Amino acid sequence: MKFALSTFMTPVAEIPEIALTAEDSGWAMVTMSDHVANPQTLTTPYPYTADGARRWPEFTEWPDQLVMMGALAAATKTIRFTTNAFVLPMRNPFQVAKAIATISNVSNNRQVLTIGVGWSKDEFGLLGQDFHTRGKRCDEMIEIMRLLWTGDYVSYDGKYYQFDKVEANPRPTGHVPIWVGGISGPALRRAAHLGDGWLSDLQPAADIVDSIRQIRAMRKDVGRDHLPFDVMATPMDVGDPDGLRRLEDEGVTHIIGTPWLMYYEGPTTLEQKKDSIKRYADDIIAHCS
């Protein structure tokens, strides 16, 4: 089992240094969360809380995930980095494909693109993208990016995107894993049919296992069960090595952790974050390898 350090709600300027600490301490990956702009008043409720309120306070810092990947590629040597999650259908597939291919070339292909379809109609409007077609457009975007990453002339004739032969180089230096986030039926199907992995929400371990089993059955139905598949999970009720190993037996390959929430209360300094990264590595990671 591998461990991914969450930088959710971390000041952007601190991320490169805590990534270095994580790399030195045996963490496998760093994750970053995604919001472009947060409206003062929501017109669509946040779907992952009972009251529809956001989990974070206003004025929280959110890095541009792809820019931060480039920065981490320069600051680190071995740790991988992923988006948690990147709202793909808010963007343009050509620009995303170009950015990921560039990151691949400067990082020795250490990036994983973890995508979701998003929930905020407000942000889609701000970026000029249609909210209601986001799921079907996301599926086409995945196909388009994989075509572009071949580096050859490619064309596409879908319902939402059409273009004649184009090439986009550089191509990535290796396979670009696409992990799919979400807990709805369509999200699980997208992970099974198109993804190289699945990202859970913050949820009970039993729900995570149930989703893994659903995805496994769907992958078998479409003949993809022979392909490698990762699961990055955040169980809300399991944190000890024995419990994490049981999740590994069910197919979880990566656990997301925010260790300073375990060791400190309230706001934390950079030094406290670095200390907690090391302590978690000693207390948990060392016993799950």
Could you characterize the architecture of this molecule?
This protein has 289 residues and is α/β, with parallel strands linked by helices. The chain has two domains: 2-197 and 257-287, TIM Barrel (Alpha-Beta Barrel); 198-256. It has ten helices and eleven strands. It has helices spanning 15-25, 65-75, 93-107, 121-126, 134-148, 185-194, 205-221, 241-249, 260-263, 270-283, and strands spanning 2-6, 29-32, 80-83, 86-87, 111-116, 154-157, 162-166, 178-181, 197-203, 230-235, 254-257. An eight-stranded parallel beta barrel has the order 1-2-3-5-8-9-10-11, surrounded by five helices. A two-stranded antiparallel ribbon has the order 6-7. Helix 1 links the parallel strand 1 and strand 2 (29-32). Helix 3 (93-107) packs across helix 5. It is globular. The mean pLDDT is 96.
Brief description of this entry?
The protein is 39% helix and 18% strand. It is α/β, with parallel strands linked by helices and 289 residues long. The chain is globular.
End-to-end C-alpha gap: 6 Å
Regarding CATH, which class of the largest domain? Alpha Beta
Our estimate of the beta-strand percent is 15-25%
| Main β-sheet, spatial strand arrangement | 1-2-3-5-8-9-10-11
- How much is the average pLDDT? 96
Topology-level CATH name of the largest domain: TIM Barrel
CATH 4th-level superfamily of the largest domain: Luciferase-like domain
- What structural category arises from helix and sheet content? alpha/beta
Integer-rounded radius of gyration: 19 Å
Which spans of ≥5 residues are poorly predicted at pLDDT below 50? none
Q: Supply the number of structural domains.
A: 2
Count of DSSP-assigned helices: 10
* Strand elements, count: 11
Helix content: 25-40%
CATH A-level architecture of the largest domain: Alpha-Beta Barrel
> Shape from CA axes?
globular
InterPro entries: F420-G6PD/mer, Lucif-like_OxRdtase_Rv2161c, Luciferase-like_dom, Luciferase-like_sf
Organism: Caenibius tardaugens NBRC 16725
GO molecular function: oxidoreductase activity, acting on paired donors, with incorporation or reduction of molecular oxygen
Keywords: Oxidoreductase
